[in-house]
Model the fold of this input.
Amino acid sequence: MTARLKTLPKTFVIGDVHGRRAQFKALVEMLPRDEERDTLVVLGDIVDRGEDVPGTIADVIELQRTQPQRVVVLRGNHEQMLLDFIDGRDDLWFHAAVGSETTFEQYANRPLTFEIRENYDVAQREVMEVVPPEHVEFFRALPFYYEDDYAIYVHAGLDCSKHPRDTDPHRLMWSRDEDFFRRYHGKLCVFGHTPVSFLPLLGRIGNHGIYVHHSAIGIDTGYTHTSPLSCLELPDFNLYQTFESGRTAIHHIRALVSETLRYVHKRRGVPI
Done:
């Protein structure tokens, strides 16, 4: 059985990166990923808060450029807020809680002043001048979900009654739905957006910082000086984590394997 499982292509799913370039690079390097067969999925929210947002974006773009068929990057609500700001639809991206100040200052190499923050037209013009067009076009091209044999991958969550292709993208990027967290039984869904510490307790017990409950798996393991950046490997449920301190960790998640994943294995002729 072990030999047959090893022949299956794998999917590695990384949660919200938020500009943590060093942690992201260390995480990608530690993954036992066959670049010709295995898929890497990044769940979005690459921008804002971290120590090197422009460098992180450049790394992700290069990773996708060199492996276009094996690297999938989804659009998170932070990328959407930045696009809405640039397109003149909304100024939510400049809210103090978003973490956009670090993004602006890293691109511009100068402080975000009160005068810029308080004048939308000036701020919009400044952002358009400092963020490279290549990065903006990269954000615009990001899909809202991805699906393979193992799971559906989305930034925030699903409408339990709909496939993501039939769902409002706003819900896929922004939702924090207790019904989804507690009662979703569809095809396995891996999501980020909501830090695991804010998800229901039952799904957090014994899962090394991620959330596993029925068919919902949350892997946004937070953004603090001590929280890890996490990557879940399917179908084996191995969890890879890197920390700001440079520490790394690998765990095998032993929570209930969903019936959906059992079906995938059975269909491929691989016994559980």
Observations:
- The first helix runs from residue 2 to 6.
